[in-house]
Amino acid sequence: MPLATLNTPRPSIPAPVLARGLAAAALHGLAMAALLQAGTPPWLASGLGFAGGLAANYGLQRDYIQRHREPQGRALSRYIADTSVLWALHLFLFGLLNGVVGTPVLTAQVVSSALAAGLGLCFALRPCRYAPV
C-alpha cells in the first residue's frame, strides 16, 4: 500500500462542535431523568429526552450545520432526516435492551445513546454532510 494512501487526511469534527453535542446529550439525560421522576414510562422518557436533545443540538450546532452552500431549508431537511434515523435507532435499541432483554434503564440509555451518537458522527463525517465551504 502506498505511503500516500496511509497518510491521507481524514475529516474531523472540531472540538467545539463535539462539546456542543455533549451539552445536548446532557440535556437529553436531564430531560429523561425529569420525565422518569414524573412517572413517565422509560421508553417514552427516553424517546422524548432524545428528541429534546436533538432539538437542542440543532440550536447549538446551527452555524456548523449550515456552513455549506445548500439553502437553509435543505440543510434543515437533511438534519431532520439524519436525526430521525438516529432517534428511531435509539428508541429501538432502548426498547430492545430495557423492554425485551431486561437491561436496567441507565445501562440501556447509555448503550443506545452511544450507538446513536456514533452513527451521528458517521453522518457528520460524510463528505456530503454538513461540510464546510
Strand content: under 5%
Largest β-sheet summary:
none
Contiguous helical run count: 5
> What's the Cα radius of gyration?
17 Å
Tag the structure with descriptive keywords.
mainly alpha, elongated
Describe the structure.
The protein has 133 residues and is mainly alpha-helical. It has helices at residues 3-6, 15-37, 42-65, 72-101, 105-125. The relative contact order is 0.14. It contains five helices and no strands. Helix 2 packs antiparallel against helix 3, helix 3 packs antiparallel against helix 4 and helix 4 runs antiparallel to helix 5. Helices cover 77% and strands 0% of the residues.
What's the SSE blueprint?
Layout: H1 3-6, H2 15-37, H3 42-65, H4 72-101, H5 105-125
Helix pairs in contact: 2-3, 3-4, 4-5
